[in-house]
Amino acid sequence: MNQLISSITDRANVLLVSNSPNDVRELLYVLDRHNLGTGLAGDIDEGVELAAGGTDLILLDAALAGSNIGATCMRLRNAGGRHSVPLLLMSATPSAEEQGRSVGAGASDYIKMPFNARDVAEKILMELALHKAEAPAARPFATPAAPPRPVHPQTLEVNYHSILAGSPDAVLLFDIDNNLLIDANHLAEELFGMPLAALLQGGMEPLFPKHQSDGRASPQLLEEKIRDTLQGKIVVFRASCCHRDSHPIACEIRLMRLSVPGRQLVHARIIDLTERNLAEAMRSGQSALLEMVAKGAPLIPTLNQLLLLIEGQSRGVLCSIMLLDDDGVHMHSAAGPSLPPDYMALLEGAAIGPGVGSCGTAMFLREPVVVSDIMLDPLWAPYRELAAPFGLRACWSRPIFGQDGAVLGSFAMYYREVRQPDARDLELIDTATDLAGIAIGRMRHERELQRHRAHLEELVAERTAALTQAKEHSEQTNLELAAALENLSITQEELVRRDKLAALGALVAGIAHELNTPIGNGLVVATTMAERTREIQASFLDGLRRSELGAYLTQASEADAIMLRNLQRAADLVSSFKQIAVDRASSQRRHFLLRQFVAELMLPLSTPLKAAGLSLTQDVPDNLAMDSYPGPLGQVLSNLLENCLRHAFEGRSGGTIAITARGSDDGQTITLSIADTGVGIAADDLVHVYDPFFTTKLGSGGSGLGLHVAHNIVTGVLGGHIDATSSTGEASGTTFTLQLPATAPQSPAP
Fold this sequence. Notes:
This protein has 750 residues and is of the alpha+beta class.
C-alpha cells in the first residue's frame, strides 16, 4: 500500500481549518508521516487565503462556520478554483440540519469529534484516492492548476480495488443501498477462506455467525454499527467473523463511510485478532499456572490446566503428560483431559524404551520424537492397534526434564490427521514442557520436603520426650534447689547477723584499744602519785625535808601533765567516736555559694600550709550554688585536707593541693575533688581507707577515723558518694572525688 499511497500523496495537500491546535496536533503528525503536505488556518479568512494557493482536501471545524455553514463550505471550496475538492467537516454534535446544508454546499462527509487521528488519516487517504484528479495537483499553496475532472461513480470499484490491494489488513467495500459486497482485497479472501467471486455473491451477514459470543444476534449488531457509520462516525468494534469452514475468527472491525455522491458505501477494515488473543490467553494462562504452582495446588489439576491452555492455542490438538516412575523405567498416565480415558488407561505402567511409541521413546532417548503418521511409523508398530480405534494419526512428544537434568516425564501433542509441526507448534511444545517441568519439579520437591518433614517430626517427638524427661528432672532439681536456697537464705541472715556483731565487736575492740592507752597511762600515773602521796604523808609525820617535798612537787607536776595529756587524748577519741554516727538532725541546711564557702574554709589552713611549704589552689566557678549542709561538708573537706597535711607529703618538701569543682550540664550534680601531689597511697591500703581505725601511722597520733567519718557524712547527710584514686612512684598523688547533689535530700539518708 505504501507505493499506492505515495502515488496518491506525492502532490496531495491537506488544509485544516481549526482554532483548536491541540485537537488536531496528533492528526498533523500522522498526516506528515504519510507524506502529506499540511496547512493549518486559525479562522475562515486565513483558510480561504491558504485554499486559494491550492489544496487537495479541506478539513473544517464546523464551529468556525457558525450558522452559515453552507456558505462557508462553498467559499473555501471555490477559493482554489477547484470545485471538486473534497471537504470534510469536524463537529462534536453534527445535527441532521447541519449535515443537509453542508452536503448541499458540497461537503463530502462529517467526522465526529473527538476522533482517533489514525482513523481520520485513513479516511483522508481514501477520500484523496476517490477524488484523485486526472491532472497533477498543485504543490502546497502554489498557483492553482486547471480544475480536474471528478471521478465517475461507475468506475469507482475499479479505482478502489487498487487501493484495497495495498492494505496490510483485510478490506471490504459494501454497497449499503443494495446490501452487497462490491470489492475486497486478497487478505480478505485469506481471512474468510473464500475466493473473491464467492465473497461478492452476498452482503455482510454471511461473513458473520448467527450470534456473537455474548448471545447478541449478528444482523442486529451490524445494523447498529452501519447506522452509526452512515451518520459520519468512524466505528470501531470487536466481533466474531466466520471462516468458510465455520470456525469463528476474533476480529477488530473499523467501519468508515466513503463520500461518493449518490451512493452509500462503507469501507470496512478487518484485523484478525486470533494471534493477539492467543498470545494474551497464553500470557494469562501461564500466570495462572505459575500462581497455582506457587500456592502448592495439586499436581494433576495443574497439569490438566496446562494441557487445556495448550489445546486452546492450536485447533484439533489433544495433549497428554506421562510421568516416569521413580524406578526410571515405567511411565504412568498423569493428565490428558481431551484424550479418551480408555486410551490413557492402555498406556498405564508401560516400560519406556526404543520403539515404545512417541512418549516412551522420547523419555528413553532423552530427545524429542516427532511422528507425523502413527499408522506408518515403526516406533508405533507395537501400539498402532491401540491408537487406531481412537482415530489418532500424529503424535509429537518431548521429554520433561528436572533442574538436575533427570527425566521427569513427557509431553505429547496428538492430532487426528497426518501432520508435521510448524514453528508455532514447536514453540508451544517448548512452553508446555518448561511449565510442566516446573510443576512436576515442585511436586517432587514438596514430596521430598514431606519426607524430611516426617523425619523431622520423628526427631522432634524423640527430642520432646527427652525434654519432657529433662523437664521433670529439672522440676525435681528446682524443688531441691528451692529448699537449699531457703536454707541458704536462713544461713545468710545468720551470717549477716554475725557479721554485724563481728563489726560491732571490731568497733568496740578498736574503741577499747584506742582508749586503753591514754586511760592506762593516766591510771599508771595516778597509781604512782597515790603511792608517792602515801610516802610523803609518812615522811611528814617523821619530819618532812625540804628536798623530799621539792621532789614530790616536781613529780606531781609531771604527773599532772601526763594525766592531762592522756585525758585530753581520751576526750578527743570520744569526740571522734561520736562523729562516726554524726547527729544529722543537728546539721543546719541553707543555700550557699560553693566558691565562697571553700575560700572561707581555707583561711585557717593558710598558716600550716605555709609552714609545710605547700601551695593550695582552688578552681571553683563563681555561680556554683548548693542547697545543702555546709557544716558536715566543711567537716569532710577539713578531714581530707588534714589528711593531706599529715600524711601526703611525708618525707617531701613542698607540693600542691588543688580543690576543683564542676557542675553537671543539667545543674543537678556537683563534682568536688581534692587532689595532692604527695607520695600516694599503696593499692593494698587504698581499698581500706574508709574502714574505721585503719591507719598506716599506728602509734603516731592517727586514730584511723577521719576518712571513715568523711565517708559517712558524704553518703549519709549529703546524699552523695566519695571515690579515691591514687598512684605511687614518680607521678604520685592522691585524688578524693565527691559526687554531691546540688540540692541535698530533704531528709538525710539513713
